[in-house]
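Contributing new records

If you add data, match the layout below exactly. Sequence lines come first and carry their own label; structure lines follow with theirs. Keep one chain per record. Anything else will be rejected by the validation script.
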Amino acid sequence: MKIEHVVCDVCHDMPVKTYRVTHAGRVRSTDLCEEHGKPFAELFNDGYEEARPPRAARTRGGPRVPRVTTMEEIEKLKQDRRKP
């Protein structure tokens, strides 16, 4: 069994968070403990602890209402489709 521990890139302490930074098309990631990751955490501390949940998709019109169809209507639709 192999166990891997991710440690801070600066002081080798645990636990850590992985920060990913993009600049001018280049991406870098670093693993930092709470102390060394504080500048990143403060940079994004805008009053939201977690990301906001996605909004529900908008739909056209009102709520969907299921259509009730009788067996006779279904059979008629089948026959109409078979006719050339």
